[in-house]
């Protein structure tokens, strides 16, 4: 079949809107009509050429929502007409990682997914007889896409596509980092570095679990109002602080008889290795946890004095917020429907597929929290 798609021809080049060929679903695969897709910083990371796993030409996009229009042989968990969210982190429920219950990083299709291919080692996309690669197993910048059955989450059909597509990455990553990775308890103190789409969802997650003091750190003062809207209690712009921000934050988080200071939990949502170090060192000695969410550039490394770790601070990383896609994503959609979490205010721009490059411009200019492309 034919489908309209925004194709990444080469690194650093604008996406090209074209009609491409899409093969039907094979064994264990589903064909999904994507109704809406978010534009995420990870898409930009790959398009820029900074992603060491970036492959071209490819169809980017991994934050989508749509309807199953066909299924291949052997598919049992979804059927035609189901509303689904594609999962760049699948959940097969059978590999050693899934069975361990210690991680959400399913390994069932990791090798082929990293090569831009379907599990059988081939691509479903082509143009003029030339292969086009898949992206993160999703390729939601195409009106239609094919995914493995284990990489789609069946969700409540009452939820609007142009909102829940954001749950395919940003919402789940931020809220999940709080609930699944850090396991933040009520009354905790927390610092969030970077108040973009991920950071705001971390703040929302902290509010959801009952954190007491939620400090947002960002270089853009316009983010203060955004943070407060989702539960932030204090805001710090590092450019307005005299000297090192770490002692400032440590002093700021002293409470009651505790004169040591430092947050119980910190979250880096920037991808800056400098901010990652600041986040760790802003933790409380003895028990502070710092969660790395942001993706740093290829070849970059993090550093701190070992004494920071010897004295009880913990560095953790998280992918997709530690969420098990097919199990947890439907729950988060239900939270949205029930009003437990907000998404609508974060969708700051809606575009057509023909305007998708404008969405990247808005991201670069810091004018959008999340831009959604609606087919």
Strand content: 15-25%
Give the structural class.
Answer: alpha/beta
**CA gyration radius, whole angstroms:** 21 Å
Under the CATH scheme, which architecture of the largest domain would be assigned? Alpha-Beta Complex
CATH C-level label of the largest domain:
Alpha Beta
Shape: globular
Main β-sheet description: 7 strands, mixed
Query: How would you name the CATH homologous superfamily of the largest domain?
Result: Medium-chain alcohol dehydrogenases, catalytic domain
Helix content range: 25-40%
Total domains? 2
Mean pLDDT: 96
Distance between the termini: 17 Å
What would you call the quaternary organization?
Answer: single chain
Describe this structure in words.
- With 375 residues, the chain is α/β, with parallel strands linked by helices.
- It folds into 2 domains: 2-168 and 343-374, Medium-chain alcohol dehydrogenases, catalytic domain (Quinone Oxidoreductase, Chain A, domain 1), CATH 3.90.180.10; 171-319, Rossmann fold (3-Layer(aba) Sandwich).
- 26% of the residues lie in helices and 23% in strands.
- It contains 12 helices and 17 strands.
- Strands 3, 4, 5, 8, 9, 16 and 17 form a 7-stranded mixed beta sheet that branches.
- Strand 14, helix 10 and strand 15 form a beta-alpha-beta unit.
- Helix 5 crosses helix 6 (197-209).
């Amino acid at each position: 079949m034919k489908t309209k798609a925004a194709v990444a021809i080469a690194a650093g080049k604008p996406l090209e809107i074209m009609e491409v060929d899409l093969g039907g679903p094979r064994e264990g695969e589903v064909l999904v009509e994507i109704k809406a897709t978010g534009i995420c910083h990870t898409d930009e990371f790959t398009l820029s050429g900074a992603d060491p796993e970036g492959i071209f030409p490819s169809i980017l996009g991994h934050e989508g929502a749509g309807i199953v229009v066909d299924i291949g042989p052997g598919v049992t968990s979804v059927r035609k007409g189901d509303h689904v969210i594609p999962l760049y982190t699948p959940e097969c429920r059978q590999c050693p990682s899934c069975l361990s219950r210690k991680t959400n990083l399913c390994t069932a299709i990791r090798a082929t997914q990293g090569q831009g291919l379907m599990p059988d080692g081939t691509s479903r996309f082509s143009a003029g007889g030339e292969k086009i690669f898949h992206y993160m197993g999703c390729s939601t910048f195409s009106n239609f896409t094919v995914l493995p059955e284990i990489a789609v989450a069946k969700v409540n059909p009452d939820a609007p596509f142009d909102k829940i597509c954001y749950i395919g990455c940003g919402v789940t990553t931020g809220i999940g980092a709080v609930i699944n990775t850090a396991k933040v308890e009520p009354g905790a103190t927390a610092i969030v570095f970077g108040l973009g789409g991920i950071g705001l969802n971390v703040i929302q997650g902290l509010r959801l679990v009952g954190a007491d003091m939620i400090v947002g750190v960002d270089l853009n003062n316009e983010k203060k109002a955004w943070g407060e809207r989702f539960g932030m209690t204090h805001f710090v712009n590092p450019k307005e602080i005299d000297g090192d921000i770490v002692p400032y934050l440590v002093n700021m988080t002293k409470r009651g008889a505790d004169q040591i200071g430092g947050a119980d939990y910190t979250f880096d949502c920037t991808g800056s290795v400098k901010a990652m170090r600041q986040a760790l060192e802003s933790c409380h000695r003895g028990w502070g946890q710092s969660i790395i969410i942001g993706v740093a550039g290829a070849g970059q490394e993090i550093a701190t004095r070992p004494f920071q770790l010897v004295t009880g601070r913990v560095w953790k990383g998280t992918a997709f917020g530690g969420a098990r896609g097919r199990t947890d994503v439907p729950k988060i959609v239900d939270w949205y429907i029930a009003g437990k979490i907000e998404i609508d205010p974060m969708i700051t721009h809606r575009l057509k597929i023909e305007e998708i490059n404008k969405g990247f411009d808005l991201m670069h200019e810091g004018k959008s929290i999340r831009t959604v492309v609606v087919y």
